[in-house]
Design a protein that fits this description.
mainly beta
């Protein structure tokens, strides 16, 4: 587990919904390879690959980028934990985090 200082962890404004998803922020994304990493609010990084993820809210995969606040589900695979569903909450990297 990553032990990050609190200020390095993504935070969510109060207006974000209390839903069943784990909240986090896309911190790395490699568009040519279609994979990246999400950091949750506890500082843990989770891998995702767009070929293995279901995007919710009719969000198109071409709009995935670093800095987006997201909700996600995790599944354990033979290769370890991965995000399997991603719900995008913000469309701008300029959003407060």
């Amino acid at each position: 587990m990553n032990h990050l200082p609190q200020e390095a962890r993504p935070t969510f404004p109060e207006e974000y919904p209390e839903d069943h998803y784990i909240h986090g922020k896309i911190i790395k994304f490699f568009p040519h390879a279609n994979y990246g990493f999400i950091r949750d609010t506890k500082g843990k990084e989770v891998y995702f690959h767009l070929d293995e993820v279901r995007l919710l809210n009719h969000f198109h995969r071409k709009n995935i980028k670093e800095g987006l606040l997201v909700g996600f589900d995790i599944s354990r695979t033979a290769r370890g934990q991965r995000a399997t569903r991603i719900k995008v909450y913000t469309l701008s990297q300029d959003s407060p985090v």
